[in-house]
Amino acid sequence: DFNVLRLDLKLGSHHPSSSAASLVSQLEKSSIANLLDERINTSINHVRKLRLRVEDTSSKVLVTGDLNAGKSTFVNALLRREVMPVDQQPCTTAFCEVHDAAENNGFEEVHILRDDVTYDLTNESTFTRASIADLEQIVADNDEHQPKIKLYLADTRAPSESLLNNGVVDISLIDAPGLNRDSLHTTAVFARQEEIDVVVFVVSAENHFTLSAKEFLETASNEKAYLFIVVNKYDQIKNKEKCRRLVLEQIKELSPCTYEDAEDLVHFVDSASALQPFIANPAFDDLEQSLRSFVLVKRSKSKLHPASTYLSNLLSDIELLAGANAIVADAELQRARDDLSQARPVLEKMKEGHDNLEEALEAVEETGAGKAISQTRTVLNKALERVGQGNLGVDKPLIPMPSYPGLLGIWGYVRDVRRALLASLDAAVRLAEDEARQLTSNGVGEIKALGDQHLPEGVERSRRVFMPEAMFSLTRKAGKGMKNRRSSSHNNIGDSSPSALGLFSVGLGALTMVGSQAIGVRGVIEGIVRIADLFENESTRKWAATVFGAATIGMTAYLVMELPSSIPRTVGRRVKASVTEVHFVDAHAGRISRETRKVLRLASWDLRERFRGAMEERAKEVKGCEEMEKRSLRAKEKFEGFTQRTGEIRGHAQLESIGV
């Protein structure tokens, strides 16, 4: 625990004493640093005051204690005259500093100091003069103002008996207000004791040490290991041994050094009886002799030992503070190195895998788009080939091939055939889109696998859910625009009824196609020449009409019978030629490929962003750990240097040997 640098936090009466330590442990480091900085600055100022006190040949003796402990009575007893105001009620509200009148050219008087200037005995503007007889009235009139008063008194006793006029050093007695009068007076006494060489603590034998007295003694013991304690009003106690035992037990706890030298430093007296003339008071005489010895003879204890004690306690606190901070710095250094050993390999692995991830994502994107365009072309080209042969483009079309209704319904038949063939091409496009969805789904799965492979643990994976059915949905929702665009090329194919030329071409196609062999042009010409030769013969002309009629009837019958198979082929060829002319396959292949690439690129972008963010976070983490490692190492070396330096200062100053 700290002695000088203790952070004394007041938590109120409802909190246990251990709560202060727990509260300090819960404070932020910056808050603790600010509190310690304030305490260190206060300690530095106190060291300066100690130096001035050691260099000053005079000695200041502070007489303090609780209310009604008899402090003023004790001072009067030391002076052997009633100068300080005494009453049953607390009456000392100001610091009354008593000096030998020899310092004031032998004049006895009161100097009331001004607050705004530094007191100078040779400068009357710094104080107000008053007579000794007016002291009681001055103190009573300034109960709230709390003036500082200097009294110059003449002691007619011999130097061997007088404390003020001792003939050795200049002594000043300071009568202070009671500790527990109010917080303002108490704080003033606490602050004043820092300027004091010797503290004479007056405690009432009736009340022993109060809480405020204990607090004052604990604070004073940081500097003054030896305190002069006067147990006043002792003659009024019936059970004196019990009182002595209890008081000494309290002193042992509050000031161990004082307890060890209790014979010289702790005195049980009745100050009021010492003022009575012609009455022997050996206890008070022993007190006076011990106080003279402590102040004048044992100046190493009264003058040097407080400085030695304070510096020793301060150095111990610095050693404790530096050692504790060195331990914390070492723990933070080890923690930073442990964090670095975990974070740095992850960052290096991510840096090494960055290019591989980019290449893999590009490969997935290009492969998916390439397969989509290739499969789409294969499906649509196959469908066009089937349509060109008069068959439906897919095996399971939405609209089946119509049945032949007969010669009278041939116009509707042609229209239904065209519609069925075009619907089969639409079905082929949907089939290509379904295959593209499957390709895209596989690609998204590969991208997720790449994420699991390259993203470090702890990084949130993508929550996006791929919905294959959402692909190409905008094409159909916008008034089924793509279907309309897809069908626009179809609508140019045979929207009007077939013309005669169209029917003739259908019939001619059926006529000229027998099985898989076509009648050649040369064979047709030779047949016409032979027929002409036959008509030159008169006998032939007789039966030619009959033969020609029969042939015409047979050909017509053949054409009619061939129409159900020749019409789908002819319409299919025209449909194929028309959609080929408008780049049907390439348009859909490009569209499907772009949609596939867009989805894969979106998934790749999401993974890239997560990878980039994760790598930035790991880089920040590594940088933070590296900075923490440097700071902790510097702090550890610095605090270890503080510990070594305090040991050197302690040995150089030889603090342990002072006051022994």
TrEMBL record:
Domain spans labelled Dynamin-type G: 55-324
Protein's GO biological process: mitochondrial fusion; mitochondrion localization
GO cellular component: mitochondrial outer membrane
Matching SUPFAM superfamilies: P-loop containing nucleoside triphosphate hydrolases
Coiled-coil intervals, chain numbering: none
PANTHER family documented for this protein: SARCALUMENIN (PTHR10465:SF0), TRANSMEMBRANE GTPASE FZO1 (PTHR10465)
Protein name: Predicted protein
